[in-house]
Amino acid sequence: MLSAAKSRLLPRWLATRWREDPIDRRQVAFLQLLLVAIALYNLGDVGFFLYVAGLGRLQARPDLACALAGTVLTAFGALAGVPMIRRGRSAAGVKVFIAAALLGTFVTYVRVDIFDLMTNPMPVIALVLAGMALGRRNLWRVFALLAAVCAMALIAQLLWFAPSRSTWGNVGLGLMTVGVYLLITLMLDRTIAALRDSLVESERRRRELEAVNRKLVREMAERERVQEQLLHTQKMEALGRLASGVAHDFDNLINVIIGFAQRRDALEGRGEAPLLKTLENIEAASRRALTVSRRILNFGRAEPGIARLFDARHALLEIEPTLRQLFGHEIRLQGIAPGPPLWIAMDLDELELALLNIAANARDAMDGQGLFRIDGEQQAGMVVLQFADTGPGIPEQLLARILEPFYTTKPAGKGTGLGLSVVNEIVIAAGGRVEVGNTGDGACIRLLLPLAAPPARSIRADQLASR
Predict the structure, then answer these.
(1) Listed residue (102, 86, 215) closest to 151, CA to CA
(2) 3-class SS at 441?
(3) Strands (E) located in 277-330
(4) Of 219, 288, 312, 318, which has the fewest Cβ atoms less than 10 A away?
(5) Which of 153, 120, 223, 137 is CA-nearest to residue 185?
């Protein structure tokens, strides 16, 4: 952990506290490292010179003194630029170093042979830093100053001490040196201009992309808001259509209640037991009507029914009296055969509502006479409840759409298209699926529901009926 903290210390130290231009921001750390390296390099030269002089191997000469002074000036100029860069004044720090390097070059080559200037890296470094950190205009200014330094150093050499070569030889060497610096400046100018233009273009495109991204975020937020409003509007529209079609279910249940109530004359004189049984059936049908009412009240709240474990076979046997009353005397009902329990977990009221919708559709399809058959079995971990009638069946071209909400083939006023769609919704909510097809005698609807594990203790019929 300590080594990791140390490895992060240098980048944090190199980061300036005040940031300037975003392009200059990219080279702050490099500039600091470069100036520190230049200072150490020059101070190393000074130290080596003093060490050799201390051993008595060097004699005091004007050229050595000028070289030492120029090296010290360059080193201290580099050190002075580092804190300025750290304070966010990168341009000022670079200018201090360049000024010190040019002054050090002049002091050195007043007495040192100008031929050695060709091997001195400091003027080239000054040109590179000027173009990289100060721009193209300042690059050419530094070149002009460097050419002036070379000219003044050459004049000083020609006037103050005897050169080792002819006058025209020194002039030619000076012009060649300036020509080399001119070539370097031209290459730097074109390269730095291209790089800086690329960085400026990249920065401009980044700002444009950020603006486009912010606009896109706003548009997405607006679209989500509009979509929520649209969904709310669609839900209100569907709620209105559902309210207009809920009479479909109430019609089935009211017919059952009326049928039981009309038996009052037949029950006269037969005692209290048949009357109480009829009243119980009326109560059960009324409770199922409340289930229909609850479904429309819960519409759009995504609140599932109360799932409970029960035997589907027993539940179908319990609802047979209601189905017989719904069908009347002309349609025969063949109820589910006795057998092993068919355990499922779902809302019992919703299963009964689904069965009433299926039976009502079968009644309408059989046109008052026929047979409605109920079967149940276990298949591959599923409870399969099958309901078949002896009507005309479902045309093949309608099988794909028969479960869609509000899709009906009945005349206006006779159907809403909600019956089988409600069945499909109930079964899917319970984790099952609905299969619609035809047998040789008529339509067949199969409800496939997940088989539940049997309860730890048996459930009596009266417990199942109490909801």
Answers:
(1) 102
(2) coil
(3) 308-311
(4) 219
(5) 137
Return d(Cα 282, Cα 137) in angstroms, integer: 100
The structure tokens 């057998």 sit at 339
pLDDT tens column, 351-397 = 887 888 888 888 888 877 899 999 999 998 999 999 999 888 888 87
What's CA 49's distance to the chain center, in Å? Answer: 64
Residue in the block written with tokens 């360049």: 98
Mean pLDDT of 239-249: 54
Lookup: tokens for 391: 């009507």
Which residues lie closer than 8 Å to 276 by C-beta, 6 or more apart? none
Helix (H) or strand (E) run with residue 348 in it: helix 348-366
- Report how far Cα 437 is from the mean position of its chain's Cα atoms: 43
- What is the three-state SS of 59-77? CCCHHHHHHHHHHHHHHHH
Q: What is the pLDDT of residue 229?
A: 73
- Contact call for residues 281 and 322 (beta carbons, < 8 A): yes
| Predicted local distance difference test score (pLDDT) of residue 462 | 45
Residue 95: name the closest of 151, 139, 144 by CA: 139
Instruction: Name the token pair of 30.
Output: 């490099």
Q: What are 245's two structure tokens?
A: 């079609």
Residue 424 · residue 319 · CB < 8 Å: no
Angle subtended at Cα 398 by Cα 397 and Cα 400, rounded to the nearest 5 degrees? 95
pLDDT at 240 over 90: no
The single-letter code of the amino acid at 137 is R
Residue 14 · residue 29 · CB < 8 Å: yes
Domain ranges of the chain: 2-214, 304-465
Q: Rounded distance, CA 2 to CA 6, Å? A: 6
Two tokens at 17?
């506290």
Integer Cα distance of 372 and 365 in angstroms: 11
Residue 13 identity: W
Indicate the pTM of the whole model: 0.41
What pLDDT shows up at residue 255? Answer: 66
